[in-house]
Amino acid sequence: MLIDSFAPNPDAVEVHSIVIHAPSEVVREALWTTDLGGSLIIKLLMGLRSLPEFILRRGCVPPRKREITLQTVIDSGFGVLAQQPNEIVLGVTGRFWRPTGNLSPFNRQDFDRPVPRGFARGVWNFSLKEDNPGRTILSTETRVTCGDDKSRRKFRAYWFFVRPFSGLIRLVMLRAVRRAAVQNRER
């Protein structure tokens, strides 16, 4: 898998997958076009995550009707590290444990170098595997590598609280893609 070349020895790993009764081409299209943030659960969790920024901006309200597609995830700070027809790998660097100002601007070349001290690097993929005609397994894997022991301790404390919710977000996203793919297959 492409993700292996960007995070071969991660400090944290989160993996989820779902079976979708649709061909991989239909699932791939749904992955790119589905509103991944349409669920009330995701809206609530993302709202909680953005609460410190909201407070510091003294109540500036973000747009309410914004869809979250794979492209908007990329536009919001994740960058594309690699892409093949059956896998896309995204990356982000930052101090995820900080309440605000926690992401660094994306620079693809940074991912060819070690993680800097005081930072962590997240690598997130989506992969598709058609195991039977018309049946695709869509998986997502998140790997985080920290630049030093101090950032690793901070990240692990953060991850202890965030991991269950992060996993829930990914499961809800996978289910949304499955719903869209099955609907598109039936058209």
How would you explain this protein's 3D organization?
With 187 residues, the protein is of the alpha+beta class. It has a single domain, classed as Alpha-D-Glucose-1,6-Bisphosphate, Chain A, domain 4 (2-Layer Sandwich), CATH 3.30.530. Helices cover 37% and strands 26% of the residues. It has five helices and five strands; from the N terminus they run βααααββββα. It has helices at residues 24-33, 40-49, 51-56, 70-75, 149-185; strands at residues 12-20, 79-84, 87-94, 120-132, 135-146. Strands 1-5-4-3-2 form a five-stranded antiparallel β-sheet. Helix 1 packs across helix 5 (149-185).
Considering the chains and any ligands shown, give keywords for the structure.
globular; 187 residues; 26% strand; 5 helices; Alpha-D-Glucose-1,6-Bisphosphate, Chain A, domain 4; alpha+beta
Number of helices in the DSSP assignment:
5
Indicate the percent of residues in helices: 25-40%
Q: Supply the helix-strand structural class.
A: alpha+beta
- Taking pLDDT < 50 over at least 5 consecutive residues as the criterion, the unreliable ranges are none
| CATH architecture verdict | 2-Layer Sandwich
What shape does the CA trace take? globular
| End-to-end CA span | 32 Å
Number of domains: 1
Question: What's the helix-strand series?
Answer: EHHHHEEEEH
Radius of gyration over C-alpha positions, nearest whole angstrom:
17 Å
Give the strand line-up of the largest sheet: 1-5-4-3-2
Biggest sheet descriptor: 5 strands, antiparallel
Q: Report the sheet-strand fraction.
A: 25-35%
- CATH topology grouping: Alpha-D-Glucose-1,6-Bisphosphate, Chain A, domain 4
Give the strand tally.
Answer: 5
**Highest-level CATH class:** Alpha Beta
The pLDDT mean sits at 89
